[in-house]
Design a protein that fits this description.
The protein contains two helices and eight strands; from the N terminus they run E-E-H-E-E-E-E-E-E-H. The protein is an alpha+beta fold and 96 residues long.
């Protein structure tokens, strides 16, 4: 699955990961939480990022996201790869 990975103090990068829970948890360093960014894009982060004092990463929807997170496409309740249009749009908005 193609995602856009956001690590603290780094520009976002496109990565390929397996579309299953364990790899997602490994990326964010714990239990995952999802935040809908648009109709078909979701932000996946550590649900305890602030409680665990993970480093601040980015402000999204007027709140800090702490620790490493990623964005993926979503259809219903299923994660899927970001397509080229989504990636270009996300990099234009969130890239540095």
């Amino acid at each position: 699955m193609k995602i856009l990975l956001f690590e603290p103090n780094e520009p976002p990068v496109v990565r390929e990961i397996k579309n299953s829970l364990k790899p997602m948890q490994k990326i964010v360093g714990g239990y995952i939480e999802t935040v809908y960014i648009g109709d078909d894009v979701v932000l996946v982060c550590n649900e305890e990022g602030k409680l665990r004092n993970l480093p601040p990463n980015r402000i999204m929807q007027n709140d800090w996201i702490c620790g490493t997170f990623f964005m993926a496409s979503v259809k219903g309740a299923k994660f899927k790869s970001l397509d080229d249009r989504q990636l270009a749009s996300l990099l234009k908005v969130y890239g540095r």
